[in-house]
Amino acid sequence: MTEAVTAPSSAAEHNPFIQMQRRFNIAADLLGLEKGLREILVTPSQEMTISIPVKLDNGQLRVFTGYRVQHSIARGPAKGGIRYSPDVNLDEVRALAAWMTWKCAVVNVPFGGGKGGVICDPRRMSIGEKERLTRRYTSGLLDLLGPERDVPAPDMNTGEREMAWIMDTYSLHRRSTCTAIVTGKPVGLGGSLGRTEATGLGVAFVVRESLKHVGLPATGCRVAIQGAGNVGSYAGLFLQEMGHRVVAISDMYGAILNSAGLDMPKVREWLKEHGRLEGFPGAEPISNAELLECECEVLIPAATEGQITSQNAERIQAKVIVEGANGPTTASADAILERRGVFVVPDILANAGGVTVSYFEWVQDRMGYFWDKQDVFDREERVLVEAFNSIAEAAQRYGTNARIGAYCVAMDRVAYCLKIRGIYA
Ligand code: NAD
After folding, report:
1. Residue 80 and residue 163: Cα distance in Å, rounded?
2. pTM of the predicted model as reported, rounded to 2 decimal places
3. What would the pLDDT profile of 157-178 be if each residue is shown by its tens digit?
4. Residue whose CA is at the smallest distance from ligand 1 atom 15
5. List of E strands, 241-383
6. What would the pLDDT profile of 249-268 be if each residue is shown by its tens digit?
């Protein structure tokens, strides 16, 4: 029970905010949400655009533009990453912030959703310039941020180093060390063991549950992975450990295929040494487009948005798609895949292992007591299995697919909090 297949690829098919709204509207209809509540749920609660003056290494001053959007704080502090990119824009940040609200609600962690971005090209900036940019951006957001208000994390082109700068800047202004202000920090500075692997491991847990759900074997399935970064390469590693065969994997330069299975520890070593997959011994080079359409049982898009569209959904051979990336499938492709009987696990569940362990990091920071890695992994597994089951149950109850089932679970949880908190007038 989804919308009809719509016109082929268009600007709208690639606008993340429009994509989010289309899924939102279907779920809101199924939940029977009243108009006013829909409006609150879809409207970002707060948006900030700031100018960030930075002294460049050559002595010149340049003003960058930064955003922070808090989509919802109904269930807890806003949670979401900060991306540095030349083409980040407010619509994209809004969509990503809303996704975070739904993602946190799907795994039932007590966070709302937020996202940040700065228009810059980090590849053309020195470490010093990035540090000054990060610190000034943080100081511009001081009134918004806080461990009980808004807790950023890494996203595209930001990582542990930037999180350490944010934590330090915030702490200096507050005159006390506050590790819980950001997650994704280095271990030793309040970071959590297992956070690095968490998203890929979560994808592997979700693949395992999906195979069980659709009646495919628990071992020996062929897996194709788009994206050999943090998410894709760890997902491949854990799936190989679970007894599956990673037959194809790609990076932004192209893909490699070996139907007998690629050795994931060796693939990761090769990548570390060479920086790209090209030339990996014993594998055939194929294109990224071919990877998406190759023969496999499981496809994991773990690179970027808008990869499975109305243009290629018809040719995808996988029986199960588990979305490691955010927004890899467009709403038009959803309808085609559903008609063809492909089981799609949406991003807001499939890659939620990351935010789940970010939540564990925040909890550990606030306790000042840290868990061992196995403890983190065991807790993550429990959260994801429970979330998977609640989504499968919702999909059945509402007669819809897993994506809309996930939106129903998430929106219902956020709407419940809004209703019992009431509207302060
Ligand atoms: P990453 O930068 O470590 O890896 C991205 C990989 O995708 C690289 O191998 C890159 O070469 C490849 N890639 C980029 N563009 C591509 C393209 N057009 N075609 C094919 N390959 C391409 O990033 P990551 O942390 O692994 O994140 C991947 C995705 O997962 C993103 O959508 C991100 O938002 C999402 N995600 C990441 C996390 C996390 O914890 N890292 C959590 C949730 C969601």
Report:
1. 12
2. 0.94
3. 999 999 999 999 999 999 999 9
4. 252
5. 245-251, 254-257, 284-286, 298-301, 320-322, 343-345
6. 999 999 999 999 999 999 99
Nearest Cα residue to 358 out of 366, 137, 308 = 366
Ligand 1 pocket mutation, candidates 100, 185, 252, criterion most atoms within 8 A of CB: 252
146: DSSP letter: B
Structural domain including 236 reads: 196-350
The residue type found at 291 is: L
Distance, CA 294 to ligand 1 centroid (Å)?
Answer: 20
Q: Cα 146 to chain center, whole Å?
A: 22
Residues 170 and 211 both lie in one domain: no
The answer to the question of residue 364 being in a domain is no
Say yes or no: 209 and 166 in one domain: no
CA distances from residue 62 to 125, 231, 258, 330, 358 in whole angstroms, order as listed: 12, 34, 48, 36, 33
Q: What is the CATH number of the domain that holds 164?
A: 3.40.50.10860
Query: Which DSSP string do the residues of 31-75 spell out, in sequence order?
Result: HT--HHHHHHHHS-SEEEEEEEEEE-TTS-EEEEEEEEEEEE-SS
